[in-house]
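Hi W., the iron/sulfur cluster complex you wanted:
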Amino acid sequence: MIDTFGRKINYLRISVTERCNLRCRYCMPEEGICKKTHEEMLTEDELISCVRAAVSLGMTKFRLTGGEPLVKRNLLSICKRITEIPGVEELCLTTNATLLPDTAEDLVRAGVSRVNISLDTLDPRKYGWITRRGSLREALDGIDAALHAGFAKVKLNAVLIGGFNDDEIPALADLTRKWPVDMRFIEMMPMAGNTEFGPEAYIPYTRVLEALPELVPVSNKSASGLAGSLPGGMPEQNGVAKLYRLPGALGNVGLISPVNAHFCRTCSRLRLTADGKLKPCLHSEAEYPVKGLDEEEIKKQFAAAIYGKPEWHGNLSVTERSHALRRMNQIGG
Ligand code: SAM
Ligand code: SF4
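Structure:
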């Protein structure tokens, strides 16, 4: 479907759970979440009805996220059922990777083709601090499992945090020389509940360009192959990321700038929360409930959410916070 601002909406990000085995400081409160009752959450059948409704409106790409999707007991069944739906072209997953060693191959067999893995630091002590309980070793083992499981693409995501990992930009980018992965740096978003960090922590994506002057802009045509400069040195926008490459690297460096250079004009996505709310925009408080509805009614809610998608999310800053009423683990980043 095309929305009121001419954008083709073909991508649905589905949060399968609000729960997580980590507690990243920018995402979740230390005490975890207020557990909702089973009855409040979407059932597997309702989730599949949502995907069918989405496909009937022209959506082709789906991503499972959370919370941590790998803590969801019936995740593999969900994946299999989604990839069996005619019209589903791609199923991807976003994860912290710590549980991937036991699940990566099953996920590939269930039809997941791409995986995005969060990795904010290569320092075990800092990893423990930012996740409040995670082990870097487990995350690295998960990345290793992903690289050997046969996914078509593995991407790593780091949230840029001034005073925490800005000194690691070269080391993180260097992973693209070691492994066939894209390394993407994401500006930290001032979600309503993310009040742990001061203004100095919100650094712009341009800090990556300053730290890595050897980066070469990548054109769309060469995004999965050799790097190629564009006239004027401007990178292509591939999805939400501006793409660059280090000389001799196996993958790209991507810069994702929701705060300092938003990409709302090309946004093609809707979000579905684990408790059955369609969100037309990550940063808007607007939600369209689908819990308890039949497939025809769900389809109407999808259409309403697409037509209700705002033109852009407004300015975001440490003082102008996201209008979303949820923490990131409750939306699905
Ligand atoms: N647990 C999985 C993971 O960490 O990859 C999936 C869910 S997590 C909410 C999805 C993504 O959102 C992660 O890459 C995470 O770093 C990102 N994220 C969470 N809070 C954020 C924030 N305040 N600003 C920017 N990215 C954020
Ligand atoms: Fe969990 Fe992912 Fe949020 Fe970290 S970013 S607390 S891993 S949901």
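Confidence is low (pLDDT under 50) at residues 222-232.

W.
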